[in-house]
């Protein structure tokens, strides 16, 4: 039974459409009908767009349009149309990728073709411009380099700032969290934060260990996000509905507690199979498990990270 749970977790993680892939072969394998795009007005010329993939952030005004993330390639026409509806005649100037996963960068090339200059952390450019070999819960996956039109042409190491449409846009690198190239974007004057996938609002988060992420780093990054915000901050998470500062705290507290629960099993000398059998995360399943991030997958990821030599 325990071996079956492990293999099912690996299979689900490797085949889910939330996977961290990019490139033509991946999108063919993940082909799906584009989802409806929903636009939420957050004020100050800032919008949250949802569809299929990571949530977008959009700032628009007389200086042009700044977009955060691009979902999947097949979503690009609908997203560009939704952006045009709020931006009017404002040029599409910048596209910032919060990290390298396919549900956040798949539409890079169409947006670049519409005028956007692509910006990202150094590690995002590295991963998009080279073939990636990933191993997740015992299942290997090869991801080819993205097409050149999808590559970032501006990258940064620690933090950077942009000044558009009356907003000071602070871009912060959050190391070793969801991946090794995560960016959080804070619009100072509007008090709006886009977290990228360093927040899955209301569900177990995916921590991509094979891409340099770690659970402790994710907890630390959530604390950084909490410290950036206040009770009035409007928060665009990587996935899930618009969030609040208390949602960040709830996610952080859940991770601290679930990591401790799995660590207790590890300290008792239990293998991954035995830990899955013990179900240490059962108290959190009803509130936090989602269709993709099941109890088995999440437990396996936590266990793998906490027992890794690195």
Describe the SSE topology:
Layout: H1 2-15, H2 24-29, E1 38-43, E2 46-50, E3 56-59, E4 65-68, H3 76-87, E5 92-96, H4 102-105, H5 108-113, E6 117-121, H6 122-129, E7 132-136, E8 139-143, E9 154-156, E10 159-164, E11 167-174, E12 182-187, E13 192-194, H7 215-228, E14 234-236, H8 245-267, H9 272-278, H10 282-288, H11 295-306
Parallel strand pairs: 4-5, 5-6, 6-9, 13-14
Antiparallel strand pairs: 1-2, 2-3, 3-4, 7-8, 10-11, 11-12, 12-13
Which strand order spans the largest sheet, edge to edge or round the barrel? 1-2-3-4-5-6-9
Structural class: alpha/beta
Q: List low-pLDDT spans.
A: 1-31
Secondary-structure element order, as H and E?
HHEEEEHEHHEHEEEEEEEHEHHHH
Cα shape: globular
Sheet with most strands: 7 strands, mixed
Your description of this structure?
The chain has 310 residues and is of the alpha/beta class. The protein is 36% helix and 22% strand. The protein contains eleven helices and 14 strands. The strands form three sheets. The protein has a seven-stranded mixed sheet. It is globular and about 60 Å long.
What are the key terms here?
310 residues, alpha/beta, seven-stranded mixed sheet, disordered N terminus
Can you summarize this structure?
With 310 residues, this protein is α/β, with parallel strands linked by helices. The chain is 36% helix and 22% strand.
């Amino acid at each position: 039974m325990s071996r079956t749970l492990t293999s099912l977790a690996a299979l689900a993680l490797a085949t889910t459409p939330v996977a961290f892939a990019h490139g033509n072969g991946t999108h063919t394998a993940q082909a799906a009908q584009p989802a409806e795009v929903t636009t939420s007005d957050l004020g100050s010329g800032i919008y949250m767009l949802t569809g299929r993939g990571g949530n977008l952030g959009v700032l628009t005004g007389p200086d042009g349009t700044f977009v955060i993330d691009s979902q999947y390639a097949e979503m690009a026409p609908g997203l560009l149309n939704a952006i045009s509806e709020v931006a009017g005649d404002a040029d599409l100037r910048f596209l910032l990728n919060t990290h390298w996963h396919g549900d956040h960068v798949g539409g890079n090339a169409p947006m670049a073709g519409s005028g956007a200059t692509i910006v990202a952390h150094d590690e995002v450019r590295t991963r998009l411009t080279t073939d990636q070999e990933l191993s997740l819960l015992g299942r290997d996956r090869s991801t080819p380099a993205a097409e050149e039109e999808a590559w970032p042409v501006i990258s940064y190491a620690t933090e950077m700032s942009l000044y558009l449409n009356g907003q000071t846009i602070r871009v912060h690198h959050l190391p070793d969290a969801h991946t090794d190239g995560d960016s959080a974007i804070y619009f100072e004057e509007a008090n709006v934060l886009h977290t990228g996938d360093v927040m899955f609002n209301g569900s177990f988060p995916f921590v991509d260990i094979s891409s340099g992420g770690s659970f402790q780093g994710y907890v630390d990054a959530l604390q950084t996000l909490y410290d950036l915000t206040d009770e009035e901050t409007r928060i665009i998470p990587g996935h899930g509905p618009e969030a609040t500062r208390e949602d960040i705290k709830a996610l952080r507290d859940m991770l601290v507690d679930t990591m401790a629960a799995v660590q207790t099993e590890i300290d008792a000398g239990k293998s991954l199979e035995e830990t899955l059998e013990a179900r240490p995360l059962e108290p959190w399943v009803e509130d936090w498990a989602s269709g993709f991030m099941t109890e088995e997958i999440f437990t396996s990821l936590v266990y793998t990270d906490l027992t890794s030599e690195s």
